Give the backbone structure.
Amino acid sequence: MDPITALLDDVLDEIAPQDAGAPADYIPELAAADTDRLAFAVVGPHGRVRAVGDDAAEFTIQSISKPFVLALALQELGRERVLARVGVEPSGEPFNAISLEMGTGRPANPMINAGAIAVSSLVPGGDVDERTARIVETLSAFAGRSLWVDEAVYASESATGDRNRALAHLLRSHGVLEGEVETAVEAYFRQCSLLVTVRDLAVMAATLAFGGVNPLTRRRVIDERVARDVLSIMGSCGMYDFSGEWMLRVGLPAKSGVSGGLLAVAPSQFGVAAFSPRLDTHGNSVRSVLVVEELAERFGMHML
Ligand code: DON
């Protein structure tokens, strides 16, 4: 076994016994998750994926889609047009809070639901299918393989998504949402329902770490400038109302999702991802947070 995989195995043994938290239950399909699953992966500059635990387990990407759809919008429209619709300040509030800026009605940032729905609505495409296709194509390029929507989770999201619809109506009333509410939220529910593994997320993180070039496929997915913008916003807003403490403890731009996934980016060094369904009160995975914190410590990845 190579020394990096041995180190990952060691961290797996250390963190596996932690059993605090509970899976998300506001979407019925997520409540049914196998809560014992734990996996994580790292990808370096040569695109070699090292993974331990349940690394073949698929789960829905959820909020971890947000930075990648933001990347797509920034790439297509440029920074100015995106920032006209969404801010870049931490909200200090939960992911599903209203958090709109006084006066402009812009959501605080693209990592909370309101901001992500606004950003998703900017993706070119006349209807849900066209927009979803653009999103799936881009996230697949980040992952280096074709990703698919989990239709059962999508149906569950849509059936229980009234709060997100309400947020979208508010955005539309402020002129911040592009197009119709239903188109925007259905495309957003689909982007959240894409199936990934920790391996995929680690490659996606690595693509941001290496300036927008996927180290596995060697393909440029986005411009270097866009990758930097996305990482900057993940750095201040990626872990919701835990973002400040996360930066203090771990020191890496990161993004979490309610199905228990977490990815972190050590610029020019590593893409890192973890998965474990039990969440803390902020909606971040308890064991994924511990894993990435431990890896950052052992690899000396804290940026500061
Ligand atoms: O918008 C929602 O409710 C979810 N489908 C995605 C939210 C999410 O992952 C927030 N994360 N912690």
The two ends are 31 Å apart (CA to CA). The first strand starts at residue 39 and ends at 43. The chain has two domains: 3-62+195-299, 63-192.
